[in-house]
Amino acid sequence: MKVLSSMSEPLRLAPLDLFIDPLLSFQDARLRDMYAYWEEKRAGRPFPARADVSPAEIVSHLPSLFLVDVVAPGLSIGDFRVRLMGTALNDLFARDFTGTSLEGAFAEKSAAAIGKLFGIVCQLRRPLRLYGSASFAQAPATEVEAVLMPLTTGSGAVDMVMGELLKRASA
Question: CA 89 to CA 40: how far, in whole Å?
Fold first, then answer.
């Protein structure tokens, strides 16, 4: 994990056609806004508490927002349960994952990669940008960009990940 924290180049999230960008070079202004909100709520701490985040302050982001609970140690897909999934994401996935574990929701190799991604956020205790091409609900691949940001419910550990996933505009 230390390698990722000192990286200056994106890392491919195999077997998916997605890349991890630890430099947070957002292309979508909405994700820059969400990251700025997280930074403001962090207030000099490593990451904000869930109680610091107010849905009323981020209404325009809610359709593409997700909250995932982390069960220690947060290293595999079975350690992550979706607490909230925005309506735009329900449409994108053609499924609502709210209240379910991510285990069994994806093909085995994809699930392992997704578990590693969430695990990196938990271990490094910092946001990551994700971008690339992904297929959802048997639809053709589409370009996406996302931010994943650690939160705590008060334990001091990362026990929740807040993220926003957006379809990127066509070139």
Answer: 25
Q: What is the pLDDT of residues 118-155, one digit of tens each?
A: 999 999 999 999 999 987 767 788 899 999 999 999 88
Q: Rounded to whole angstroms, how far apart are CA atoms 101 and 77?
A: 8
List, for residues 50-93, the tens digit of each pLDDT value.
Answer: 999 999 999 999 999 999 999 887 878 889 999 999 999 999 88
Cα–Cα distance for residue pair 163/24, rounded to 1 Å: 13
Reference 28, options 143, 160, 151; nearest CA is 143
pTM: 0.89
Residue 61 dihedral angles phi and psi, to the nearest 5°: -90, -20
In total, how many domains does the chain have?
1
Whole domain around residue 127: which residue ranges?
2-167
Could you tell me the CATH number of the domain that includes residue 124?
Answer: 3.30.450.20
Instruction: State yes or no: cis peptide before 140, omega within 30 of 0.
Output: no
Across-strand partners of 145?
A: 131, 166
Say how far apart CA 43 and CA 48 lie, in whole Å.
7
CA distance 7 to 14: 17
